[in-house]
């Protein structure tokens, strides 16, 4: 059975657990920086290439600061996400605002910050104009419809609520041109957790084709093509990371043929990955609380799906290491569960693992994206703290754990009608 590595020594881990208790997510700064550098290097042939880190994957300003230091911007879709970007020093056109079903005040907020506005629908043109004004740079999100794949996380494009149809794009850019807009971008996001590099090359080709057609037809000039996020990560130990050079080389070839070949360049290429940047460099540490033998053997943890709900909602695989038992035969079959009163609160189902005892520390891998971020308070569960393993080996707490007071803070207990506890 292949194992996945953990960037800590056992002794250091014991120290961290002694200080912070369990459960917690911990992120590896070095790994995150490394991923951003590999991505930027792969696309260094494109003048102006930029990764806009998708904040929703790991909404913590300490992480965003690392992203900024590595040259990345931020992809935001709500006012709180805009605030997080600004807190981390990501401002102006280093913010891509890709929202849908957008409230007025968020367009106003994004416009005030000078963010790049990426519209989700043609009906948002008058909405934006009326409520926030038309910016001088505009981007539209394209939904290619039934022609393209999709997958179990993002669904089929024709069933997805996002984006403009092709006809609407032509119409939308025409309207914007008539309104005096001079700077244009085109965006799409049709994949999630995709491991096949060809998918991203095909996406670039699809956008480049559209850019050629629209530029010629409307006589407008595009500044950038945003290929979206969605680069997958190897959740399973036998999977390989996506070869970013392969994506980049394929995109470059298409770029030279279509964009340069049609004398349209320079066109900046943007991406907005979340998962690929931080996903593999987050770990959820949790302790075994109970072991229960009924029709199956259940390992009950002090973490639950409030800390990581990908397995419960997508049936997603997350690798589990039992600390200190890496080399022992994985000859016991367990359902690894949390304490939520929902039977899908399982991190693993019928998983072969070494013999587990109460008090063992389990590491759930690849929780750096869509992990803490998807947490919730159902059943009165509280979200854990987040730690950051700095490059120099220090461990910094970048978010404290929620307390009961946080949970109760939106309730109105004042007055006499409630009993004292
Ligand atoms: C979720 C999302 C992303 C990031 O997706 P990953 O799979 O984490 O790379 C990027 N752009 C948009 C519009 C998204 O909704």
List how many beta strands DSSP finds: 17
What sort of overall outline do the alpha carbons produce when their principal axes are compared?
Answer: globular
- Secondary structural class: alpha/beta
Ligand set: pyridoxal-5'-phosphate
Low-pLDDT stretches:
none
Domain count, please report it: 2
Main beta sheet: strand number and arrangement? 9 strands, mixed
**CATH class annotation of the largest domain:** Alpha Beta
Give me the strand/helix succession: HEHEHEHEHEHEHEHEHEHEEHEEEEEEH
At the fourth CATH level, what is the homologous superfamily of the largest domain? Alanine racemase
- Rg measurement, Å: 23 Å
**What is the first-to-last residue Cα distance?**
51 Å
Characterization of the model:
This protein is 30% helix and 22% strand. By secondary structure, it is an alpha/beta fold. The protein folds into two domains: 250 residues, TIM Barrel, CATH 3.20.20; 129 residues, Lyase, Ornithine Decarboxylase, Chain A, domain 1, CATH 2.40.37. The longest helix is centred in the middle third of the chain and has 22 residues. It is globular, with a radius of gyration of 23 Å. The N and C termini lie far apart (51 Å). Pyridoxal-5'-phosphate binds next to helix 10.
